[in-house]
Amino acid sequence: MTIFAATAAIVLLAVDTRSFTITTRTTMTTTTTPYSRSSSSPSSARTPPRPARVDAAASSSDEDIELTRRAIMSHAPRGTDVDVPSLPSHMSDPSDYPDDDLMIRAALGRTSVERTPVWLFRQAGRHLPEYNEYKRKVGRSFLEMLSYPEDVAECTLQPVRRYDVDAAILFSDILVIAEALNVEVTMPGGVGIQVPCPLVGPADMRERLPRASSVDRDFVRDRLGHVMESVRLIRTKMREEGISKPLIGFSAAPWTLLFYMVGGSSKKNRNIGMEWLANHPDASKELLDLLTTIVIEYMSEQVECGVHMLQLFEAMGMMIDETEFNTHAMPCLERIASEMKSRYPDVPLMVFARGASHANEKLSTMGYDIVTIDGDVDRSRARDVVDGRAGLQGNYDPGELVMGNGKTVETVRLTAGEMLAALGPQRLIANLGEGLGGNESPELVAAFVDAIHEESERMIRG
C-alpha cells in the first residue's frame, strides 16, 4: 500500500488491479495553545481521529494482509522472505500499520530481518540544532512544551527527518505520571529533576494520591489527555509528511516513579528510595501497586491512540540493591508485562532496567520482547543471559558520538561494527547504553545510524 500525504487530505491508493473507492479526510487543525482538560469533552478524549480508510466492498481480510505484505516487501532486499500473518490484533485498519515495520519485526523476532533497526534514547532534544532553535522560538521550557501537542509533535519528528532512524519516539518525560498524581516536578537546569514537595510518609501519601482502585482509563484520559492528544497529532503529521515508521510510546517503571516521588535524585538523596521501602513497607507496597496500575493504563491508552511499540524505563535501577529490586520492583515489571501482553500481544514491549543488569535474565522470561542492555553489560554474555527468550537492545556508548578526542566518522563506523559483531545483527535493536546527553555531534549520530544499517545488511547478506 502506498500512502500519499497532502496538506489538507490523506489519500490512500492500493497497489493492485482491483477497483477501489478512494476517500479523503481533512486533517486535524492544530494550534499552539496548551492542552486543557476542560477544553475537550470526555467523548472527544475517548475517540481518537481515525486515519483515512480504503473503502473496498470486495476486499477481504486476506486481501488486506496481502497488501500489507506487498508494502513490507517493497522495503526488503530481493529474495527476502517476509511473513505477515495478520495485522496486530488490536488494529482493524491496515493503514494504521507502518509501511516500514523493520523495527516491529526485529522486536517480535518471528522472522529474520534484512538489516538491524536503530533508534536512540533521547534522539529528540538538545543535541539537535533545530530543537534548540525551535525551543528559543516558542520561548518555553522543556516541561512547558510537553503541554503543547504542537511542540511535542514537532520535537518528536525532528530526528526522524534528520536521521534514517527506524522509529519515532514520543517526546515526553518519565515523570508525567507523577505530575498526573499531583506531585509537582521541576527542572531548574543544572541540578537534574526536582520534586519540590515529595511524599513524606504514609499519611501524606494517602492524603495526596488516589487509591489504585480509582485509577482506570478514564483517569488517564483526564490527567494525561495532553499526551494522548500529542500522540494523535504525531500520527497525523507523520501521515502528512509521508513518514510511515513505527511510533514508540513509553513510560517510567513503578520503582523509578516511587524513587522520584519520595524525593530521590540522581545527584542527591540517592538513598531515600531504599529508606522509604525499609521504613514504610506497607505504604511502599500500596504506592507501587498504584503506580503499576497507572503505568498499565497509561501505556494502554497510548496504544489505543496510535503508538506501535512500547518502551518501559526502569531508569533508577541503580538506586536499589538486587535483593530489594527482586522483592519490590520485579513484581511490578512482571505484572506490567503480563497485562500488556494480554491486552496487546502484537505490540512489541521493550524494557530497560538501567544499572540493574542482574534483572535481565528474569525480565527475559516475563514476556518482554526486548531487553535493553546498558553500557556496563558484557556483550559477549548478553545473548546467553536472555537465552533466546527475548531480543536485545543497546548498548553503544554515546561518548563515541561527541566530536573531539579522536572521535570521527571512521571511529564511529568501527565501533558500531564491533557492537554488531559482538551482539549479532538479528533480534537486535541497535541503540545506546544510556540516553544522548546533548553534546553529541549530529554528524556522528548520522554516521552511527548509517553504519548500523550498512554493516548489518552486509553481515546478513554474507
Explain the overall architecture.
The chain is an alpha/beta fold and 462 residues long. The chain is built from 18 helices and nine strands. The model is unreliable at 1-31, 38-61 and 72-85 (pLDDT under 50). The strands form two sheets. The protein has a seven-stranded parallel sheet, with helices on both faces. Strands 1-2 form a two-stranded antiparallel sheet. The protein folds into two domains: 2-100, no CATH class; 129-461, TIM Barrel (Alpha-Beta Barrel). The chain starts with a strand and ends with a helix. It has helices at residues 42-46, 61-73, 102-108, 129-138, 142-145, 149-162, 176-180, 202-208, 217-223, 225-240, 254-261, 272-279, 281-305, 322-343, 360-363, 379-386, 409-423, 442-461, and strands at residues 2-5, 10-13, 168-169, 247-252, 309-314, 349-353, 370-372, 391-396, 428-432. A hairpin with a 4-residue loop joins strand 1 (2-5) and strand 2 (10-13). Residues 28-47 have a biased composition (Low complexity).
Topology summary:
Layout: E1 2-5, E2 10-13, H1 42-46, H2 61-73, H3 102-108, H4 129-138, H5 142-145, H6 149-162, E3 168-169, H7 176-180, H8 202-208, H9 217-223, H10 225-240, E4 247-252, H11 254-261, H12 272-279, H13 281-305, E5 309-314, H14 322-343, E6 349-353, H15 360-363, E7 370-372, H16 379-386, E8 391-396, H17 409-423, E9 428-432, H18 442-461
Parallel strand pairs: 3-4, 4-5, 5-6, 6-7, 7-8, 8-9
Antiparallel strand pairs: 1-2
